[in-house]
Design the sequence.
């Protein structure tokens, strides 16, 4: 088993940002806001966030905001809740949320809640428990959760619970580790973890670990590094992470590194990308791998960033 | 299929098309960080530059529709292009059946794309029940290539609930499970059908026949996580019935005595005992036959022995089974 090639991963992330002319970055152009979140959070976990130009990134983010308050995936793209959360998360990393008109951003998110408590992704109305998480996480980070009907939002998420204890994208949808992360994360942030059948869900989640140590997202699917994050963070939030073999999972993630050029792939020997590099490093952080900052399993941001946002705020109020 | 070379030869740059001479293309603004001249594929760049121009001018015209077709073919993930396309379709009152065909073409390239499914739902919503059979056929086609396709299943469930078409759905689940009894998506759909179909009468009405079906599936492949969880789900609203139904305990016993792939049988037996099931000597003997327990456990109760066996045969989850064992003592 190799070590974490931290320095190589830093170089890889920085090089991706520079390669704007590559085919990948053109195809991904519309979701650059997500890419910024994945890349910058990885850099922060690796202790290298100071190597980027904060002002440049912040002014780009502001340019992606629409009059509605929502953010697009890049300049000139329509607003969507996916990119709105990424924008807020990146600004949180830099402690720059004060550049935002908080009421405007929160009004955009609040406007996406439907009568049944669910959330749409944008004005076109697609509904998915992913959007419930995104809305709740985003509003919590800007301290405006009180602007939505939390009880209805929670009830909708609970209505997506399945016989195996997991959650799907809509009521009756198959349990899937990615959706489970979203539902558990939203329930954690709203203080509703008691609505989960923790033992049943915990067992389903630990059944996701396969022989080579990796985790899959559904029964009989291949293991994938991104599920390290979704399954692990869910297990941590419901306090059942000791049910999996952590050592084997660490080895699986480390085996997915490109030791020469940096980056992490979905499975050993596949091509690396920023997305899996983020999920690999974030997963290792949850596994308390030495040298990495701790990451918060619900907000998907470094713990010190989350503490700054919530504890710092309480103190300010007191004074 | 045309090679990309051929495609390039057929492709005429917008600058050379007379019908586009009135449009000034707009390049992507990459923000305050001016980048070196971008070298992506030229047709891609030019198409997007013209798209930006029409999008900013909000030109909802037939040629704009054609342009979004080209842009989506080049990059089906670009959600802004899809959004604009819907505005154009609305403005033109376009034929939505033809639009279904277009999404099918895109799906042939890559069907794992949120935009495509979202667009498809938007069309089907407008067509209403006129779209039911087409949507069921479309998802069936996608599922024939990838039977666990998450988007396709989610679309299909939406079609059934919003537009109907439940008549053959249980039969469809049978078909898929016959192909692959391990298909968790098909088991999930089966549960969806028996609990939600307006024509089957719900879980209670379906329970007896579903238990029969599931027990057979379990006996054939006892290592199948999905069928065991489905069996438990059939008693979701009635733990008492689950503990006392002889079909449940007997399928555990059958699998245990075969001594192969018995992890889920053991864990089900454990769950049953935790809910008050009183095992017969037959169970004790079957579990003892799975291996000699540590000497200090000889004579301990059956639930403890079951946990010990599970710790041994499922070592990756040893902590889970240890926790289950510790809970037994807490209960006492
Ligand atoms: Zn992945």
Sequence:
């Amino acid at each position: 088993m190799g070590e974490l090639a931290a320095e190589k991963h830093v170089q890889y992330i920085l090089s991706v940002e520079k390669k704007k002319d590559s085919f990948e970055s053109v195809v991904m152009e519309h979701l650059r806001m997500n890419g910024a979140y994945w890349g910058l959070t990885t850099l922060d976990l690796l202790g290298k966030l100071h190597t980027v130009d904060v002002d440049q990134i912040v002014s780009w983010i502001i340019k992606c905001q629409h009059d509605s308050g929502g953010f697009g995936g890049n300049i000139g793209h329509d607003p969507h809740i996916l990119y709105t959360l990424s924008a807020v998360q990146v600004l949180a990393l830099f402690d720059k949320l004060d550049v935002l008109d908080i009421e405007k951003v929160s009004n955009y998110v609040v406007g996406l809640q439907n009568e049944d408590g669910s959330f749409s992704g944008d004005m076109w109305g697609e509904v998915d428990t992913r959007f419930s998480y995104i809305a709740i996480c985003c509003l919590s980070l800007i301290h405006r959760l009180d602007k939505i009907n939390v009880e209805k939002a929670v009830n909708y998420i609970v209505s997506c619970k399945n016989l195996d204890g997991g959650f799907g994208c809509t009521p009756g949808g198959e349990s899937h580790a990615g959706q489970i992360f979203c539902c558990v994360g939203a329930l954690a942030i709203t203080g509703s973890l008691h609505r989960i059948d923790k033992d049943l869900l915990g067992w389903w989640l630990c059944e996701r670990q396969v022989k080579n140590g990796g985790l899959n997202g559904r029964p009989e699917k291949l293991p994938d590094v991104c599920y390290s994050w979704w399954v692990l963070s869910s297990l941590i939030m419901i306090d059942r992470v000791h049910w999996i073999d952590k050592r084997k999972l660490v080895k699986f993630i480390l085996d997915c590194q490109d030791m020469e050029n940096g980056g992490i792939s979905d499975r050993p020997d596949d091509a690396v990308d920023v997305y899996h590099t983020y999920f690999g490093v974030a997963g290792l952080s949850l596994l308390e791998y030495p040298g990495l900052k701790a990451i918060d399993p619900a907000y998907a941001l470094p713990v010190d960033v989350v503490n700054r946002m919530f504890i710092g705020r309480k103190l300010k109020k007191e004074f | 299929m045309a090679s990309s070379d051929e495609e390039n030869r057929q492709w005429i740059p917008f600058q050379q098309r007379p019908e586009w001479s009135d449009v000034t293309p707009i390049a992507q603004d990459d923000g305050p960080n001016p980048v070196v001249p971008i070298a992506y594929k030229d047709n891609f760049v030019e198409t997007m530059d013209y798209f930006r121009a029409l999008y900013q001018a909000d030109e909802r015209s037939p040629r704009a529709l054609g342009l979004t077709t080209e842009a989506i073919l080049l990059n089906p993930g670009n959600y802004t292009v899809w959004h604009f396309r819907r505005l154009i379709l609305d403005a033109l009152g376009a034929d939505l059946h033809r639009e279904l065909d277009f999404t099918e073409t895109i799906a042939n390239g890559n069907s794992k794309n949120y935009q495509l499914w979202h667009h498809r739902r938007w069309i089907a919503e407008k067509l209403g029940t006129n779209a039911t059979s087409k949507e069921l056929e479309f998802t069936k086609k996608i599922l024939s290539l990838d039977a666990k396709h998450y988007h396709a299943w989610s679309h299909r469930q939406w079609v059934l609930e919003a537009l109907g078409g439940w008549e053959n759905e249980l039969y469809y689940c049978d078909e898929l499970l016959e192909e692959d009894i391990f298909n968790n998506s098909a088991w999930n759909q089966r549960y969806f059908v028996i609990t939600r179909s307006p024509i089957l009468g719900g879980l209670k009405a379906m329970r007896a026949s579903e238990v029969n079906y599931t027990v057979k599936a379990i006996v054939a492949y006892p290592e199948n996580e999905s069928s065991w969880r489905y069996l438990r789900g059939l008693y979701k609203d009635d733990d008492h019935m689950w503990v006392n139904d002889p079909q449940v305990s007997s399928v555990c016993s059958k699998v245990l005595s075969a001594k192969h792939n018995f992890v889920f049988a053991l864990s089900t037996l454990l769950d049953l005992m935790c809910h008050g099931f009183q095992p017969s000597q037959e169970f004790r003997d079957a579990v003892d036959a799975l291996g000699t327990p540590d000497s200090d456990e000889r004579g301990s109760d059956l639930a403890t022995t079951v946990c010990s066996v599970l710790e041994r045969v499922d070592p990756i989850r040893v902590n889970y089974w240890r926790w289950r064992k510790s809970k037994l003592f807490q209960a006492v």
Notes: Residues A 224, 226, 266, 276 surround zinc ion (CB under 6 Å). Residues 223 and 264 of chain B are 7 Å apart (CA to CA). Chain B touches chain A through 59 residues (CB under 8 Å).
